UniProtKB/TrEMBL annotation, chain A:
One of its GO terms (molecular function) is RNA binding. Its main location: cytoplasm. It comes from Hippolais icterina (icterine warbler). Pfam families: RNase_PH (PF01138), RNase_PH_C (PF03725). Residues 2-99, 103-167 form the Exoribonuclease phosphorolytic domain. GO terms for biological process: nuclear mRNA surveillance; poly(A)-dependent snoRNA 3'-end processing; rRNA catabolic process; rRNA processing; U4 snRNA 3'-end processing. This is Exosome complex component RRP46. The keyword Phosphoprotein applies. It is found in: Cytoplasm; Nucleus, Nucleolus. Belongs to the RNase PH family. InterPro entries: ExoRNase_PH_dom1, ExoRNase_PH_dom2, ExoRNase_PH_dom2_sf, PNPase/RNase_PH_dom_sf, Ribosomal_Su5_D2-typ_SF, RNase_PH. Homodimer. Component of the RNA exosome core complex (Exo-9), composed of EXOSC1, EXOSC2, EXOSC3, EXOSC4, EXOSC5, EXOSC6, EXOSC7, EXOSC8 and EXOSC9; within the complex interacts with EXOSC3, EXOSC8, and EXOSC9. The catalytically inactive RNA exosome core complex (Exo-9) associates with the catalytic subunit EXOSC10/RRP6. Exo-9 may associate with DIS3 to form the nucleolar exosome complex, or DIS3L to form the cytoplasmic exosome complex. Signal peptide: none annotated. The gene is Exosc5.
From TrEMBL, chain B:
SUPFAM superfamilies: Eukaryotic type KH-domain (KH-domain type I), Nucleic acid-binding proteins. It is found in: Cytoplasm; Nucleus, Nucleolus. One of its GO terms (biological process) is exonucleolytic trimming to generate mature 3'-end of 5.8S rRNA from tricistronic rRNA transcript (SSU-rRNA, 5.8S rRNA, LSU-rRNA). This is Exosome complex component RRP40. GO terms for cellular component: cytoplasmic exosome (RNase complex); nuclear exosome (RNase complex); nucleolus. Gene3D superfamilies: K Homology domain, type 1, Nucleic acid-binding proteins. The lineage of its organism: Eukaryota, Metazoa, Chordata, Craniata, Vertebrata. Keywords: Cytoplasm, Exosome, Nucleus, RNA-binding, rRNA processing. The keyword Repeat does not apply.
Length: 186, 168
């Protein structure tokens, strides 16, 4: 725990290029840069996952014809990278003061071959797992915003992982609250 | 970030002259436009002397999420009432929007106490920009530092800091 870190920078709402502007809402663009190498197909698919999760919470209709850019740089990867990116994205949105409908957090579950559920697995645990599920959970009533699965698992196992993730989400939202409180009190 | 609101007085920086209209950066998501006729006593023959990089103090007449914001430097009766091009020298800096509202509240002690320290000119824009000009560069910078620090200082800390400065 603590070895995966992602740096997030949020720019906007700023003027959008005419080819990219949407007439009634803000256009969100996510760039994910890996630690080494050029961004590949995996980064592109993660960017789209992040983009659709953020679009679900950002109140884009308040800023039509603008562009919001979110840039994520992976500093170190020791497992659970996608949920780290989700958490970094949400904190960037909070810090920038963008209007949001809800906060969200990312939780990764690894389903081991014997059926036990591990939250926030390390890279080694991810490799040994039968399935890895990542959920983006909203702060209002712990609803699921995004879920992605790698590997195979049964429906009941997925429900169990989701319930565990929703419980873990409470801890993460408390962390958000504490960080913001520390930032704005001197 | 600042979101333009109709009626807000802001400080804009001229970024371009496009024919009869100036483009001003007001810190929002897009530049605001300002017509050359929107100054006191401006006619088609008598154009205001505005260059790229000048500071302008004006108010918004059009500011909603769907359209480009438009500014003017005259009020409803055609008088400039303090708006227009901000003069040479002085120092422009940014503060948070919360501090601006605190400074513009009816009885703001910060400005009263500062004015007892040195005489200075002050223009406050709702977009988080403040322009200060005092007699010397040093006095200007002292005023700037105090205003920036007021964000986090309590009233007693501020009075102590000002007492130290007026003692020097």
């Amino acid at each position: 725990p603590g070895d995966t870190s992602v740096l997030a920078g949020l720019y906007g709402p700023a003027e959008a290029k005419i080819s990219k502007e949407l007439p009634d809402r803000a256009a969100l663009e996510v760039l994910l840069r890996p630690k080494v190498g050029l961004p590949g197909v995996l980064e592109r698919s993660r960017e789209q996952l992040l983009r659709q999760t953020c679009e679900a919470v950002i109140l884009g209709v308040l800023h039509p014809r603008t562009a919001i850019s979110l840039v994520l740089q992976v500093l170190s990867d020791a497992g659970s990278l996608l949920s780290c990116c989700l958490n970094a994205a949400c904190m960037a949105l909070l810090d920038a003061g963008l209007p949001l409908a809800a906060l969200f957090c990312g939780v990764t579950c690894a389903l081991q071959p014997d059926g036990t559920i591990l939250l926030d697995p390390t890279a080694r645990q991810e490799q040994e797992a039968r399935a890895i599920l990542t959920f983006a959970i909203a702060s209002t009533e712990r609803k699921v915003l995004m879920s992605t699965t790698k590997g195979s698992c049964s429906v009941e196992e997925m429900q169990q992982c989701l319930a565990a993730a929703q419980r873990a989400a409470t801890t993460i939202f408390q962390f958000y609250r504490d960080s913001v409180r520390r930032r704005y009190s001197k | 970030q600042y979101v333009p609101v109709k009626g807000d007085h802001v400080i804009g920086i001229v970024t371009a002259k496009a024919g009869d209209v100036f483009r001003l950066d007001v810190g929002g998501s897009e530049p605001a436009s300002l017509s050359y006729l929107a100054f006191e006593g401006a006619t088609k023959r008598n154009r205001p002397n505005v260059q790229v990089g000048d500071l302008i103090y004006g108010q918004f007449v059009v500011a909603n999420k769907d359209m480009e914001p438009e500014m003017v430097c005259i009020d409803s009766s055609g008088k400039s009432s303090g708006m227009g091009i901000i003069g040479q020298d002085g120092f422009l800096f940014k503060v948070t929007l919360g501090l601006i509202r605190k400074l513009l509240a009816p009885k703001c002690e910060i400005i009263q106490e500062l004015s007892q320290l040195y005489p200075f000119e002050l223009v406050i824009g709702m977009n988080g920009r403040i322009w200060v000009k005092a007699k010397t560069v040093q006095q200007t910078l002292i005023v700037v530092n105090i205003l920036e620090a007021c964000e986090y200082m309590t009233a007693e800390q501020r009075k102590q800091a000002l007492a130290k400065l007026s003692g020097n």
